[in-house]
Amino acid sequence: MKRLKFKVPGLNETIFVNDYDLFIAGFTGSNRENVEKHLQELRDQGIEVPKKVPSFYRVPPELASQDKIIKVRGKMTSGEIEPVLLISEGSYYITLGSDHTDRDIERRSIAESKASCPKPIADVAFPLEDAVKEWEKISLKSETFRSGAWKQYQKGKVTDLIQPLKLAAMLQEENGGIPRNLVMFLGTVPIEGGKFIFSEGFRGSMFHDNSNFSVNLEYRIEVEDK
Description:
CATH class: Alpha Beta
Number of strands: 17
CATH topology: Fumarylacetoacetate hydrolase, domain 2
Helix content: 10-25%
CATH architecture: Alpha-Beta Complex
Largest sheet: 6 strands, mixed
Radius of gyration: 16 Å
Distance between the termini: 29 Å
Structural class: alpha+beta
Number of helices: 5
């Protein structure tokens, strides 16, 4: 049975998400002009972009990983920090994940690239209803580890993305329903400098400056021999 386990701070409880569907939501920026600008940049590189955005990519649930080391098949892979919506038996939570992606595959197929690598996910989650009360005050950031040093990679606000319940409603409309058990990556914030870094490690956090709301994620990347 597919199962993910999460601690819920403050409630002194653990939740499990069992037999879930895994979706990666793409092009979920709340500023549609910026989304269209990004789509055009991809078109200019010869990458075929979806006709409708946001886009929802269903990928094998086994890709969701709470391991501290992930194995990838190519050297051109990189992480992207993202809030992640969890639904466990109809109850909604929020956590943190990384849409780790093979950028070489992405050049020929975005959909194929979404299923190209494990998707690291944290082991802490918060009730969504608590998080959305302070949604505008929650930030995201990430760093990459290469050549013995950590370097800032991303920084932004969760409000740069479509709000989770609104995005879930979009999935429901497109999918014909919402799974009772769901893991959905909600999209990412821009990379500083706009260039992917292919690193040995990746870490990130989702946090509120004035409360105890904080979720952290860190993992190492190992390239498998072909």
